[in-house]
Amino acid sequence: MTNPFAGGPDRSNINRKSVKQLYDGGTPSLRGTIIKIALLAILDAVTIFVTFILFMRHLWLAVGIAVVAMLIINWLYLRRGGLPAKYLAPGVVLLIAFQIYVLFFSAYTAFTNYGSFHNGDQKLAVSAIRAAGYGVVDGAPQYDVHLVKTEKGSIEFLLTDPVNGKVFVGDSANEKLVEIPACSTAIADIIKNNSTSVSTADCETVSLGDNLADAVSAPGYAAAEQKGLSKAKLNTLAATRLYVDPANHEGQFVKTDDLMVAITYQTELVWDAKNITFTRVTDGVVFKAAEDGYFRAEGKADGEKVSDIGWRVEVGFKNFQTIFTDKNLRAPLLKIISWTFIFAGSSVLTTFIAGLAIALLFNDERMKFKRVYRSLMILPYAFPAFLSAYVWRGLLNTDQGFINNVILGGNHIPWLTEELPARSAILLVNLWLGFPYMFLITTGALQAIPAELTESATIDGATPWQILRQIKLPLLLVSIAPLLISSFAFNFNNFTLIYLLTKGGPMDSATSGYDAGGTDILITFVYKIAFSGGHGQDYGLASAFSILIFIVVATFSLVSFRRTRTLEDVN
Amino acid sequence: MTTATKIVKEKPLKVAKRRQTPLRWFFSTGWRHIVGIGIVLYAIFPILYIVSTSLYPNNSIEGNNTLFAAISFENYVSLFKDTARPFATWYFNTVYIGLVTSIGSVFISALAAYAFSRLRFRGRRGGLLSLILIQMFPSLLGLVAIYGMLIEIGKIFPAFGLDSQLGLIMIYMGGSLGGGTYLMYGFFNTVPKELDEAAKLDGATHTQIFYGIILRLVAPVLAVQMLLSYIGITSDYVLASVVLSKPESLTLAVGLQQFISDPFSRDWSMFTAGAVLSAIPVVALFMYLQRYIVSGLLGGAVKG
Prior knowledge:
The structure holds two protein chains of two kinds.
Chain A: H1 11-16, H2 19-23, H3 30-56, H4 60-78, H5 83-109, H6 122-132, E1 134-136, E2 142-149, E3 155-160, E4 167-171, E5 176-179, H7 181-193, E6 204-209, E7 212-217, E8 222-223, H8 231-239, E9 242-243, E10 252-256, E11 261-267, E12 269-272, E13 277-280, E14 286-289, E15 295-297, H9 318-325, H10 327-362, H11 370-377, H12 379-382, H13 385-395, H14 402-407, H15 419-448, H16 451-459, H17 464-492, H18 495-502, H19 522-531, H20 539-570
Antiparallel strand pairs in A: 1-11, 2-3, 2-8, 2-11, 3-4, 4-5, 6-7, 9-10, 10-11, 12-13, 13-14, 14-15
Helix pairs in contact in A: 3-4, 5-20, 9-10, 9-20, 10-15, 10-17, 13-18, 15-17, 16-17, 17-20, 19-20
Chain B: H1 2-17, H2 22-55, H3 61-64, H4 74-81, H5 87-118, H6 124-134, H7 143-156, H8 165-189, H9 193-201, H10 206-217, H11 219-234, H12 238-243, H13 252-255, H14 266-288, H15 290-302
């Protein structure tokens, strides 16, 4: 390669610079310095803004991290020297935030029971259990609900009992109901006399026909609209409880879910904040916090749960224990693991053999139109993978798909709905997706083999087959073995293909509880455990699996890379 | 080397002088063409099929299975008219997320790779080794952590939280850095060190060497790396499906799925139209950069 800087070093320049300066990367230019200062200023401004917001929220740890990170970055870029750090800093920051943190958080989650039933801390669980711990009181009054605005501007409920005509207004600050006699009289009058829409000066009503009417406003309470209220406000309103007897929070209360009809409920679970217990009103059973993150009867490990809702606790090796000892999990898991290895192994093997065969086929000097062939053949590789999966799902459709109808002449092979056909379909599709890549790399590697080798072998009387087996193939494997390993590791976690093609299905109904399908590989199975499990979402178990998969893939890759390195050295 | 190339060059000349009978042609290269055409058909029939379906008006089963039975752009028009499934917005989102992430991550990995390739510092070997290890942890496995992290961030900075494209971009960038840096490190090592040493003696600063020499020389590789990273990111389904949920913030990979729940309805025709439109720019770029892609793959291959 010609040196664009030929002409010899400029001696005078060297004399003026010390060796130290050369290693520091030369004298910085003015323009470079200005750009650097400007970028740092922008970064600092953003960080200060972020820190300010964090400060307002009293998130002291985050404030500390932001400030320290900002100071370190400024120091790194403003000091002389320390060149490596200047180039590494942006990558390292992102890597720490989005890879290393994620890795450690996953590792931590693997030792907790984090999941949809253990979503937050105990406080959150208590409020969720309290919110759900009530039942409908049979025969108690129901009310029609209208929203009203107080003079102070807060929104309250105006409740009309259509049976006896009583009208109440909610007092959400004190969680109680207040009767408005003027309105009660007016509505009772309507019910009794079937008069239509009697509006007194105090109480405005609206007729519903058939002797029925609702109060819509009352003295001090103006009619209000649901429209224009924020979603959060509506949720708060729907969660509001108005007690019949405000002194007794274990008694009956009125609540509306849809802001149309309010129903009378009875509290079934009584929360005791001092002793951290729930007491069931009906039979007096006391539920205490148990170690597994549930409220259980008397706090015993096998006691009855007060609710499926619990909180997040550290559970030690329980998730790993489940993976290795759970009898329900064992059969589906073994099947999934074996299929994962079969899938990844056969995918690499089939694509490699196909790619190599095609490369050899076209590795002939006399052949014409090679470029045309190549351009057409790498189309599957160029085509976005998610689209390929979707397209093949259509092609492989049992009744209307192109494969069954046209290529197989009206066959009805259940490509995606039965296990064996589904597995073969996946390998077939992956062959389609992967052979162009293997073709490209084997062609390149074949062309890199020196022509002398084959020449001298031919002169020595070797047959083409011998040349391939004993000269080309070993040399080829040295250069592409690392790629085959990466390809195996990639397919081991090839979520996109499997999930978008079959969703891991067909589902195996025999497997108890776990959502395991006939074509599930480990990663799709883990995804289902985490995000759509039959048990509810179990992040802890999914993270334990993730960590194990990571260990398997990393060990496999490291060991193989080692071995291929030595292979390379030997040759 | 020279003798070897001479022999290779003379061979086709000799063959050309000989009389070509069809039989001889078949045994020398003819059979290769026949096999080759078979392979090409296997490679392109699914693509021909969706192009044909996307052009077939008012989808029906017969039309589906006869390639190019009729030509109409009806499906394309209805694709853009569907307000509940805003295809154009998804398209824009995908291009936006893909471009920002691939350019950003390639640039940041290039910076780090330069340090690893050209500078000597304590912890360099350890850094490289941990890079290899970290990149083996697919971000897919960290889904739970990512999900939880975005919920927490979203409470304070909604612009980076759940259902935000910026949050997704950050996650993609973080996830692709490890592998990207390691690949780029291999490419940078192929640029002779003498070049930057000479420039250094001539008084070039490290930034001048980085932008002026190294990045220039590996520019084709950078382009390929960007394209591959763009393809990888725009093909991602899992992270995008977990992070994004509003219909107007989806990417194509997540959004187009809404069309295929019922195969061979009108939706399926619209899906094929959407698929063709989504694939065209990527495939075109891929074809255009073909030559570099092949050398890039091998460069990465030799360097592990």
